[in-house]
Every structure is written in structure tokens, then in C-alpha cells.
Amino acid sequence: MRNKKAENKINLPEGWRRVRLGEIGKIISGSTPNTSRPDLWNGDIVWVTPDDLSRLRGKHIETSARKISSKGLKNCSARLIHPNSIVISSRAPIGYLAISKNEFTTNQGCKSLSLYQNYNSDFIYYCLHLYTGGMLTLSYGTTFNEISKTGLEKLEIIVPSSLSEQCKIAEILETVDIAIERTDIIIEKYKRIKQGLMQDLLTRGVVANDELGVMNYELRDEKKYKFKDSPLGRIPEEWEVVELREVGKITYGEGLSEIYYEEYGDSNVYGTGGIIAKSNKFLGVGEALVIPRKGTINNKFYVKEDEKFWVIDTAFYLKPNIVAKYPLCHMTPGS
What is the pTM (predicted TM-score) of this model? Predict the structure, then answer.
């Protein structure tokens, strides 16, 4: 009766039901062979760890960074698990997921879900992504959170009873995954192209070429134009190498309590990852360069001329000198 009341309360679609993971498959814990015995390692049995799961780009796992031998499998409590099972990182951190393509085993940082009949592994994989927060609520620990086998068995999800409906939903989500993966490949390609362009443009510069009445720009060629040696390498003869303090004043950001965050504030609050909030408080107005000093220190963010801004204390900001000899926007290509 409890499940029926719960189902009615959240208005489940017809034919769907609430189940616990322990009802739809067997949860299997992992183990680690003795690391001081070489004969238990370097075999051909895939031995999955949370680190292996963290490196995946897609949803399937085929191999692992380390493998164990048949003797290693016999000398620990790990079990060989059949393909098409779902691997879940159960600690440090909780919630990495993958579907196995081969037989495998895991260390104790992972749990595996070997599904019973009438449950589609792709559907359950996507479903578990949706319920990662539920895993966290069932976790425990002082040094790091962990979800036990019993806790994972208690995790509740909702599924359609129809296997064909599970398969169709998984197929739609798989199509979206493929589109995302292809887009990511294109983005990475253009990032590499941009990096190459930055290297050329910011060390060689461009010159105008009015050929046949059409104005074009081309990279300076050292065979045609004069270059000189500098602490940063070869640069055009008329270029200068300057210290950042010659460009403007560098100032520490300041902490800003969340009580000052305003959804419709007219000031952008910058952190190491860019704009993190809005506020009506501000440290400055107008052109500036935000430079993180903790975490993602390679980021830089250009603040526009008419923009109010606040920079929190994990970053610096650079305001140009009154006579702006060096435009800040040139220091943040692609911004």
C-alpha cells in the first residue's frame, strides 16, 4: 500500500511504478587484491575504479588503468560481473556512472548493478543520472561520503513496466548524447585552431595589404618585415615588452556576502569562473580585466567600458591607466 500511495501522490504515468534498485537488479561490491603481490596484478581482467569512471567521455567503459590477474580475482572478494551491467562510483566522489561492455570487476570505491530481466541498462543508466542527488542523501562518512550496498539497494527510482518504452526513451537520450559528443569534438577542434591563431597573432601581428584595391590583413612575415629578440621571443621591431603594472593598477577583489546578491542587480559579480551573480553593490565602473588568483588562474575576463562590476577576493582586477596606451580588450582574445 505504501508504494501505491506514493505513486498516486506524485501522479506517475500510467504503467510506471516506483522501485528500489535492489528490486530490479543485484548490487555487487568491489575489492582490491593485495598490492604487494605482483602475481595478483597485470592480468587481463578489467578492474574499474572511480578514477577510471571520471575519465570517461561517453557512457560505456571497456578497459581500466590497472588490471588484475585470475589469481588476483580469486584472492580477494571481488566478483566477475557480466557485460551490460552498470558501474557506480560509491565514494570519492559518489555518482560517476558507466555501462560495461566487457566482463569486469571493480575496487571497493565502486558498486555494480547487474540488472534482472525486463530492465534496459541504458534506461536505468540515464535514470540514475537523474537520481544522483538521492544517492548523496543515502551516503555517510566523516573523511569522505560513501554509499553502502544496503543504501544503494534502497535508492528509489520510477520506471515504466514496459521494456519497449524503456528502450525508446533510452534511444532518444542516446541520440542527444551523440549530438553533444559531436558538438564537443567540433568545439575542441576550434579551441586548438584558436590557440594556434593566438600564438601567431600575439607574437607576429598583422599588416594591411591593399592588393588590387581590396584591403586584407596578413601575418607579418619575418622575411619581409623587421623583427627583434625579446624576453618573450622574436617580436616585430616596433613592438614593446612591458610589465603588467605599466598597463594599469592591479587591485585585490573583495569578499561579498550572498545577502548582497540581487537577481536583477545592475552590477556583475565576478569570480574565478566569470560572472557568478548580480548585485547592486560595485567596486568599479568601466573597462577592467579580471584575473583569477586561485583555482582556474588561466581564465581572464574583460569588463566592458560601461559595466558596473564587483570582483570577489579570489581574483585581482586591473584598471587601465588614465592614458590607456595598451587596450585591455587586446589582452583577452576571444572575450
Answer: 0.68
